[in-house]
Specification:
The protein is 69% helix and 0% strand. The protein has helices spanning 4-15, 20-32, 34-46, 61-64, 72-95.
Length: 96
Amino acid sequence: MAYEPDKELVWKYLNGNCSESERSYVESLIEHDPEVRKLWERMRNYHPEGNGASNRGEPDAAVEKDSQPRGTSYWLAAVLILLAILLLALFRLLKS
């Protein structure tokens, strides 16, 4: 379970204001403690910078393992819709 000091450290992490040892500690908590991970996911949704790694210019190891880059699903949906439209147009041409 996440304790109040962990919550403060997660905010510091998201803001990019924690020391190297605090950063390592928070990343370890995110990776191994499901409650802290849930807390971190909720907090990063409200944080303007996203996941905290953007302030440091390096990837976040806890996130990069199991999430796809943002925007990938939008591109996939757009391509699938375009493909469906092209197929409909092709079938209409073949039918006439």
